[in-house]
Amino acid sequence: xxxxxxxxxxxxxxxxxxxxxxxxxxxxxxxxxxxxxxxxxxxxxxxxxxxxxxxxxxxxxxxxxxxxxxxxxxxxxxxxxxxxxxxxxxxxxxxxxxxxxxxxxxxxxxxxxxxxxxxxxxxxxxxxxxxxxxxxxxxxxxxxxxxxxxxxxxxxxxxxxxxxxxxxxxxxxxxxxxxxxxxxxxxxxxxxxxxxxxxxxxxxxxxxxxxxxxxxxxxxxxxxxxxxxxxxxxxxxxxxxxxxxxxxxxxxxxxxxxxxxxxxxx
Length: 266
Ligand SMILES: [Ca+2]
Ligand SMILES: [Ca+2]
Hints:
Layout: H1 2-6, H2 9-17, H3 22-136, E1 146-148, E2 151-155, H4 162-171, E3 175-176, H5 182-189, E4 196-204, E5 207-210, E6 236-241, E7 248-252, E8 258-263
Parallel strand pairs: 4-8
Antiparallel strand pairs: 1-2, 2-8, 3-8, 4-5, 4-6, 6-7
Bound molecules: calcium ion (2 copies).
């Protein structure tokens, strides 16, 4: 008992409690201290973890705010893009309309230019006609000739072949009549009730030529009589106006009929 007390304070405790060995008590104390230290460390760890969690939570909140901010900006950008797209489409429509208007204006300008050129050409033609009429204003047809527009016409009082008729007209300062249009045809056929030679003759088969060298125009072919020219007998090369129907007929050039001459006034 005394030995035990002599071994120091820890031993004394062990002796007083009367439980376990001195070594075990020491380990118990060490364990308690370690447990305390561990608890303190754990507490510090928990505090740090709490602080870190708070920081993470704050960071997450910040990120959420940033995300909301970016979402708002993205939505705003989308709205702006949509508005710009609409504006672009509207501008494209305006551009198409303006392009159409410009093309239409160009077409109208082109048509007006053509019309202006056409009118200028007609004005020149009319001016020339006025000049020509003025030069003829003091001119008259000889006795026995009838004036129509700017020509004199003579109906023969005798009869003969086409060649004789032409020779007579030339001797009178003219030639067999050249019918240039509907009005002249109307005037010429009114000169006689009988058939008469005109200045139209076959050049080759199917080709007719006036004595002034011009070809028979398609617009005057309507004056052929029904079924004419028929080249009856294979020798009808000269043209007469039929007195009864007032239409044209090809006949044998040596047929004996009247003729009509044409010449300019003097
Ligand atoms: Ca004529
Ligand atoms: Ca005939």
